[in-house]
Amino acid sequence: MDMDSARDLAPPPAAGRCPPLASAELAGWGRVPRRRGALAAPRDAAELAALLRAGRPAIARGAGRAYGDAALAAEGGLALSMHRFDRLLGFDPASGTLTAEAGVVLGDLIRAMLPRGWFPAVTPGTQYATLGGLIAADVHGKNHHVAGSFGAHLGWIDLMGADGEIRRVSPETDPALFAATCGGMGLTGVILRAALRLQPVESGWIREETVAAGSLDAGMAAFDAAEARADAPPYSVAWIDTLARGPERGRMLLHLGAHATAAELEGRDPYATPPRRSLTVPMDAPSWLLNGLTMGAFNALYWAAGQRRAAAGPRLTDWERYFYPLDALHGWNRLYGRRGFLQVQSVLPAAPARDALAEMLDASAAAGLGFLGVLKRFGPQASPFSFPRAGWTLALDIPAGWRGHELADRLEAIAAAAGGRFYLAKDARLTRSRFEATEPRAAAFRALRQERGLAGRFASAQSERLGL
Amino acid sequence: MPLPPADSPVLILGARSDIARALAHEYAAAGHPLMLAARDPATLAADCADLALRHGVTATAHAYDALDLGAIAAFFEALPATPRVVIQAVGYLGEQARAEADPQEAAHVVAANLIGPAAALEEAARRLAAAGGGTIIGLSSVAGERGRAKNHWYGAAKAGLTAVLSGLRQRWWREGVQVLTVKPGFVATRMTEGMDLPAPLTDSAAGLARHVKRAADRGRAVYMPWKWRLVMGVICALPETVFKRLSF
Ligand SMILES: Cc1cc2nc3c(=O)[nH]c(=O)nc-3n(C[C@H](O)[C@H](O)[C@H](O)COP(=O)(O)OP(=O)(O)OC[C@H]3O[C@@H](n4cnc5c(N)ncnc54)[C@H](O)[C@@H]3O)c2cc1C
Ligand SMILES: NC(=O)c1ccc[n+]([C@@H]2O[C@H](COP(=O)([O-])OP(=O)(O)OC[C@H]3O[C@@H](n4cnc5c(N)ncnc54)[C@H](OP(=O)(O)O)[C@@H]3O)[C@@H](O)[C@H]2O)c1
């Protein structure tokens, strides 16, 4: 051995190492369906490319917060966990543009950027989703009617194809592939990095007000009234009592919000918010815990509390409590027990929406099974495959027994008849025929996948089920 | 011994290691600027950007090959700042079967886990002492506690590293150099990826890093996860006649 160096002892580094595959049982947030399949967690682009070039049909997986089977491998395929691509890469304060890797978790991004005065322009109801998942589902927030969906705030996406090559796609360089990747549910390639325009905010607080509306019509009118206000708050979402019947059917609490100004914080550090206390559900709850009775009682209490809050007037709520109330209870999906749960989220064109919503709420109350109901209004959006379009969107959580599936089927039928379509980030059960009937855009999406060499190379359990 | 202040630079050797990355976040979150060193520093650019954005600290990347024994002094000389904390994370598990059959491979395992990393720490200790003191954190392993058929060359090298760290502690403590020997058990990292490790005995890199930083802040000499203290307590107490029959 040369006295100065032991370098000759090390063989030259092997290029394009293919990381080992594990066999793992995976599920989405609803915990059904569960599927055992191959899983890999590459560390860098070279490892990812080696995995893709090996030729198995692959699907990227973020934090697994989609409810159904969107991030589960197809039969004989491979799920690619992106959690190691978790770096923030750069920030340009002049334009508010952040570049980051796809596995970055939204809450981490916020914690890094909020103290500098920036916040995501669009956020879903969980801070645990990853950047890649937010793009692939083209998520909407409570401000869709003013801000559009997540994809409207992207400069570009670095996308890896089945050939292992990275392409920077943007509305300028490749508008078709860019637009299809937003809302493309991972079926256009693996998102590696993206440039995201943030919104400037003066504080980490939200000025929140609650409007209690005693019926479906009163609630829909309250949305209109809030949007018509001179100081119309950008955020609006309603919790809807899915078990109330008769004249109270569809009663709801409309939660309105706007980012508080620094002045409203009266000299306190505007970006400092109290640390979140969180609880964890330690194990699967027994399946009977959430039933029509307990949920009816919960809804009645929540409604009463909401009425008191509505009377109390506006208040300041910190960003975690306002945007991510459910995140405070880690693993709340286990409350439904081993059977898991479904969420049916549809969007209905504005005109027929009212009657279809009423019909869905009646079905839910009659079954005594629609547990958590959320109503939002969407502004206009025209995308090749994203979920949002102008109209009303209702999301209903349902325990996944056979009666739950029966109710889900009924809700889907009502939405389909009213010209609605379904959110694939929530879907675990649509049939091919219902999907085809509600998605005239599917043919063009399939054609793009063929043309770009993506068909057969990127596939999920969901795309297989839906024939995408 | 006073702790290195929160604005004092931290040097991480073998910074691409999963454990090292987690340690970088621990130190950056506490406000320390970082110097990250690895064989291919270009691959550290994203980590440097991330550490700077998340934690508001500066992070720089530097070329370092633990096997390049002649380059150690020059490496330290070229650093942009004098570190007050030096973390040695370089390690190479190798393949036992190859190391058994090929002395060259055995020598590689010993050089990459013992000679190279320890030689760099000799230099680091001298420089920390000259700068008025500081902290050395060396990543050894429980594998160095007792030789096993599964990885006795790796174990031998780690046993050697543990001995060197102990010696460095004794040699330099009067000059204010604190030495922490870290003996992880199983950690889920690139080194162990694809191995069938028992979940209850396997730590995450992030969890280990939290404990290591805390042990260093408290001035501890050795950190070994408590479950592994129990396991190794039993293993090291077994008589050789029993131990040789075990297959683990
Ligand atoms: C409590 C809760 C509240 C929610 N609220 C909302 C809401 O208000 N609005 C809304 O729109 N959604 C909402 N969602 C849904 C959630 O935002 C989406 O499902 C999102 O896609 C989850 O991101 P993820 O990182 O967990 O992705 P996963 O669930 O792991 O994957 C989802 C899809 O993204 C794809 N994907 C993930 N990473 C990549 C990548 N790097 N490259 C390519 N494709 C990728 C997957 O293939 C899959 O098709 C909510 C979910 C929960 C659990
Ligand atoms: N994982 C465990 O279960 C475990 C248990 C006990 C102890 N440890 C020890 O913990 C430390 C960190 O390991 P890890 O688990 O994080 O594994 P890892 O990710 O494989 O890290 C090992 C690192 O050592 C680097 N390295 C190897 N030879 C080098 C050389 N000649 N010059 C410079 N760098 C070199 C590698 O650099 P490249 O990136 O350039 O390849 C790699 O980043 C190691 O010392 C390991 O022995 C690990």
From TrEMBL, chain A:
InterPro entries: FAD-bd_PCMH, FAD-bd_PCMH-like_sf, FAD-bd_PCMH_sub2, FAD_lactone_oxidase-like, Oxid_FAD_bind_N. Gene3D superfamilies: 3.30.465.10. Pfam families: FAD_binding_4. The keyword Translocase does not apply. Residues 31-201 form the FAD-binding PCMH-type domain. Keywords: FAD, Flavoprotein. SUPFAM superfamilies: FAD-binding/transporter-associated domain-like. It comes from the Bacteria. The keyword Flavoprotein applies. PANTHER family: D-ARABINONO-1,4-LACTONE OXIDASE (PTHR43762:SF1), L-GULONOLACTONE OXIDASE (PTHR43762). This is FAD-binding oxidoreductase. It comes from Paralimibaculum aggregatum.
TrEMBL record, chain B:
Gene3D superfamilies: NAD(P)-binding Rossmann-like Domain. Transmembrane segments: none annotated. The keyword Oxidoreductase applies. Keywords: Oxidoreductase. The keyword Cell cycle does not apply. SUPFAM superfamilies: NAD(P)-binding Rossmann-fold domains (SSF51735). Belongs to the short-chain dehydrogenases/reductases (SDR) family. PANTHER family: 5-KETO-D-GLUCONATE 5-REDUCTASE, DECAPRENYLPHOSPHORYL-2-KETO-BETA-D-ERYTHRO-PENTOSE REDUCTASE. This is SDR family oxidoreductase. It comes from Paralimibaculum aggregatum.
